[in-house]
Amino acid sequence: MGNGMWNQEARDLTEEPSQSNEKLEDQRPQESSFSIPRHVWVHRREEFDSYKYYKQQRADIAKYGPHPKLVLFGRVGLHCYNLRKGTNLQYLSVLNFDRYQWVTSIFSYCITLEVMDPVDNSIYEFEAKVRHAVENKGCLSAITTGCRLKPKTPEEEDKYFLWNKDLVDDFFKGDMPEWIREDALTGSDKLQYYEMKESELEEEKEWLHLYAELALFSKWKSKLDALEHAKPFKMKKIVVRTKENAESKKKVKAENAIFYISFKTRCGRECNFIIRKTTDGKPDHFSLEVKCFM
Fold this sequence. Notes:
Layout: H1 3-12, H2 18-26, H3 38-41, H4 50-64, H5 68-85, E1 90-103, E2 106-117, E3 122-136, E4 139-149, E5 193-195, H6 198-203, H7 205-219, H8 224-229, E6 234-241, H9 248-252, E7 257-264, E8 270-278, E9 286-292
Antiparallel strand pairs: 1-2, 2-3, 3-4, 4-9, 5-6, 6-7, 7-8, 8-9
């Protein structure tokens, strides 16, 4: 697909049509999530004994399943850990969580996951501290301020809890960029861009699909069942931009990068979004900002 056609797709996408909603609604399971006891999905600590509280919480989550939002942001933390450490830990389940509301539009989660290392099938507990904020309509950010295997070692204590946006590279600050220019891959800044090959889309499928889920979540926060039934996705075209003229493949795993992504949902809905990945240079600190054009 040429850049012009791709650019036009981004302009043509408007609000999700009712026909698409009906398709997704028809595919929802018969048992509604509203049948799940409220205390399973809402952080409401009525027990002063934290051990007893978390034991009950784990039992409830194991029985009824975790809230989809916990799964999504827990996987964000795990992705950032894998990116930093060069590992490939796999998500298995959510064990428990804490949630703190800072202001109206910002929530901070501490989520404990069960994960597996496919190298030797070892099972670990993993802790992800992720902040979720809605900057403005159609733009979402997920910031990790801690992601580590449990138990913590002394050198891994929480020394850098707060995200410091002032330390982010100036090239990646400010408002989210507009959709990719038509001449980006051939213009004067072409060395900053790299179009991922089909083999790379397959190789990096897991976290690319995670980015797509974040994009849909930014639009469908109240339709989490619809988000789940939009999967699996088909990646169509992904262009990565970095500040440096780095080797092409290194752009994909760069700590600071902008991704322009086009994909299809299971129902054939075409979606385009931008995700800006940055770090403030502190251990385990990553920010994923999402702007969706659907």
